[in-house]
Amino acid sequence: MKKLFQVLFFGFLAVTFMLNANAENMEKIDNVDVHYIAFGATFLTPKIAKAYNIERSRYNGVINISVLNNTEKNKPAKRVAISGKARNDLGQIKSLEFEEVIEGDAIYYLAQVKYSHEETFYFDITLNDGSGNKSFKFKQKFYVD
Protein backbone atom coordinates (compact mmCIF):
# COMPACT_ATOMS: atom_id res chain seq x y z
CA MET A 1 0.00 0.00 0.00
CA LYS A 2 2.85 2.38 0.88
CA LYS A 3 4.56 1.70 -2.48
CA LEU A 4 1.28 2.24 -4.34
CA PHE A 5 0.83 5.60 -2.62
CA GLN A 6 4.36 6.61 -3.65
CA VAL A 7 3.80 5.58 -7.27
CA LEU A 8 0.50 7.42 -7.44
CA PHE A 9 1.93 10.52 -5.78
CA PHE A 10 4.99 10.66 -8.05
CA GLY A 11 2.78 10.08 -11.11
CA PHE A 12 0.37 12.78 -9.96
CA LEU A 13 3.26 15.17 -9.41
CA ALA A 14 4.70 14.49 -12.86
CA VAL A 15 1.32 14.90 -14.56
CA THR A 16 0.63 18.11 -12.65
CA PHE A 17 3.91 19.62 -13.79
CA MET A 18 3.33 18.50 -17.36
CA LEU A 19 -0.15 20.01 -17.46
CA ASN A 20 1.16 23.31 -16.12
CA ALA A 21 3.89 23.54 -18.73
CA ASN A 22 3.43 25.69 -21.82
CA ALA A 23 4.02 22.69 -24.06
CA GLU A 24 3.93 18.97 -23.55
CA ASN A 25 7.30 17.68 -22.32
CA MET A 26 7.48 14.79 -24.75
CA GLU A 27 9.67 13.88 -27.69
CA LYS A 28 8.71 11.29 -30.30
CA ILE A 29 11.94 9.68 -31.44
CA ASP A 30 11.51 6.82 -33.89
CA ASN A 31 9.79 3.96 -32.03
CA VAL A 32 9.66 5.63 -28.59
CA ASP A 33 7.87 8.48 -26.85
CA VAL A 34 10.13 10.11 -24.26
CA HIS A 35 8.38 12.01 -21.46
CA TYR A 36 10.54 14.28 -19.32
CA ILE A 37 10.31 16.82 -16.53
CA ALA A 38 12.74 18.74 -14.33
CA PHE A 39 11.70 20.39 -11.05
CA GLY A 40 13.00 21.50 -7.67
CA ALA A 41 13.34 18.69 -5.13
CA THR A 42 11.38 20.63 -2.51
CA PHE A 43 8.21 19.83 -4.45
CA LEU A 44 8.59 16.28 -3.14
CA THR A 45 7.45 15.43 0.35
CA PRO A 46 10.22 14.30 2.71
CA LYS A 47 8.76 10.78 2.66
CA ILE A 48 8.81 10.53 -1.15
CA ALA A 49 12.31 12.05 -1.41
CA LYS A 50 13.64 9.53 1.11
CA ALA A 51 11.97 6.60 -0.68
CA TYR A 52 13.75 7.52 -3.94
CA ASN A 53 17.04 8.56 -2.31
CA ILE A 54 16.61 12.15 -3.49
CA GLU A 55 18.21 15.00 -1.59
CA ARG A 56 15.36 17.34 -0.72
CA SER A 57 17.03 20.74 -0.91
CA ARG A 58 16.19 24.21 -2.20
CA TYR A 59 19.28 23.88 -4.41
CA ASN A 60 18.63 20.43 -5.85
CA GLY A 61 16.71 19.61 -9.02
CA VAL A 62 15.18 16.31 -10.10
CA ILE A 63 15.05 15.08 -13.68
CA ASN A 64 12.42 12.40 -14.37
CA ILE A 65 12.40 10.61 -17.74
CA SER A 66 10.16 7.79 -18.92
CA VAL A 67 10.30 6.01 -22.26
CA LEU A 68 7.27 4.39 -23.89
CA ASN A 69 7.23 2.00 -26.84
CA ASN A 70 4.96 3.72 -29.38
CA THR A 71 4.81 0.69 -31.70
CA GLU A 72 2.71 -1.37 -29.28
CA LYS A 73 -0.86 -0.96 -28.13
CA ASN A 74 -1.15 1.00 -24.85
CA LYS A 75 2.47 2.17 -25.29
CA PRO A 76 4.15 0.09 -22.56
CA ALA A 77 7.16 1.42 -20.65
CA LYS A 78 10.52 0.48 -22.11
CA ARG A 79 13.86 -0.12 -20.42
CA VAL A 80 16.75 1.86 -21.87
CA ALA A 81 20.36 2.74 -21.23
CA ILE A 82 20.37 6.48 -20.48
CA SER A 83 22.98 9.16 -19.95
CA GLY A 84 22.99 12.91 -19.99
CA LYS A 85 24.70 16.19 -19.32
CA ALA A 86 23.47 19.50 -17.97
CA ARG A 87 25.12 22.76 -19.09
CA ASN A 88 24.44 26.14 -17.50
CA ASP A 89 24.74 29.61 -19.06
CA LEU A 90 28.39 29.85 -17.97
CA GLY A 91 29.20 26.71 -19.95
CA GLN A 92 29.74 24.58 -16.85
CA ILE A 93 28.84 20.96 -17.57
CA LYS A 94 27.54 18.45 -15.05
CA SER A 95 27.16 14.75 -15.85
CA LEU A 96 23.81 13.25 -14.86
CA GLU A 97 23.69 9.91 -13.09
CA PHE A 98 20.33 8.28 -13.72
CA GLU A 99 18.80 5.69 -11.41
CA GLU A 100 16.30 3.28 -12.93
CA VAL A 101 13.05 2.87 -10.99
CA ILE A 102 10.71 -0.01 -11.81
CA GLU A 103 7.35 -0.15 -10.06
CA GLY A 104 4.77 -2.45 -11.55
CA ASP A 105 4.46 -1.61 -15.25
CA ALA A 106 6.09 1.81 -14.79
CA ILE A 107 9.75 2.42 -15.56
CA TYR A 108 11.37 5.79 -15.10
CA TYR A 109 14.81 7.26 -14.71
CA LEU A 110 15.71 9.82 -12.06
CA ALA A 111 18.75 12.09 -11.84
CA GLN A 112 19.64 15.07 -9.68
CA VAL A 113 21.39 18.36 -10.40
CA LYS A 114 22.54 21.15 -8.05
CA TYR A 115 21.52 24.68 -9.03
CA SER A 116 21.48 28.28 -7.84
CA HIS A 117 18.60 30.77 -7.94
CA GLU A 118 17.29 31.42 -11.45
CA GLU A 119 19.89 29.13 -13.00
CA THR A 120 19.01 27.70 -16.41
CA PHE A 121 20.26 24.29 -17.47
CA TYR A 122 20.37 22.92 -21.00
CA PHE A 123 19.96 19.16 -20.83
CA ASP A 124 21.39 16.85 -23.49
CA ILE A 125 20.03 13.33 -23.01
CA THR A 126 21.02 10.17 -24.90
CA LEU A 127 19.19 6.87 -24.62
CA ASN A 128 19.56 3.50 -26.25
CA ASP A 129 16.65 1.06 -26.43
CA GLY A 130 18.60 -1.61 -28.29
CA SER A 131 17.97 -0.12 -31.72
CA GLY A 132 20.64 2.58 -31.53
CA ASN A 133 21.27 5.89 -29.77
CA LYS A 134 18.51 8.48 -29.62
CA SER A 135 19.12 12.00 -28.34
CA PHE A 136 17.02 14.97 -27.34
CA LYS A 137 17.53 18.31 -25.62
CA PHE A 138 15.51 20.53 -23.34
CA LYS A 139 16.09 23.41 -20.97
CA GLN A 140 14.79 24.25 -17.52
CA LYS A 141 15.15 27.32 -15.31
CA PHE A 142 15.30 26.54 -11.59
CA TYR A 143 14.31 28.82 -8.73
CA VAL A 144 15.33 28.67 -5.07
CA ASP A 145 12.14 28.83 -3.01
Distance between the termini: 31 Å
Task: Please give the domain count.
Answer: 1
- Report the portion of residues in β strands: over 45%
CATH level 3 topology: Immunoglobulin-like
Q: Treating each run of at least 4 consecutive H or I residues as one helix, how many helices?
A: 2
As residue ranges, the low-confidence spans are: 15-22
Going across the biggest sheet, name each strand in turn.
Answer: 1-2-3-7-6
What is the class in the CATH system? Mainly Beta
| Backbone CA Rg | 15 Å
The CATH superfamily is Domain of unknown function DUF4426
Which CATH architecture?
A: Sandwich
Residues in helix, %: 10-25%
Largest sheet: 5 strands, antiparallel
**Please, what is the average pLDDT?**
89
Structural class: alpha+beta
Shape: globular
Q: Strand tally, please?
A: 9
Helix/strand order = HEEHEEEEEEE
Summarize the structure.
The chain has 145 residues and is an alpha+beta fold. Helices cover 17% and strands 48% of the residues.
Describe the 3D structure:
With 145 residues, this protein is an alpha+beta fold. 17% of the residues lie in helices and 48% in strands. It contains 2 helices and 9 strands, in the order αββαβββββββ. A hairpin with a 2-residue loop joins β6 and β7.
Helix-strand layout with pairing:
Blueprint: H1 2-20, E1 26-29, E2 32-40, H2 46-51, E3 60-69, E4 81-88, E5 93-96, E6 99-103, E7 106-114, E8 119-128, E9 133-142
Antiparallel strand pairs: 1-2, 2-3, 3-7, 4-5, 4-8, 6-7, 8-9
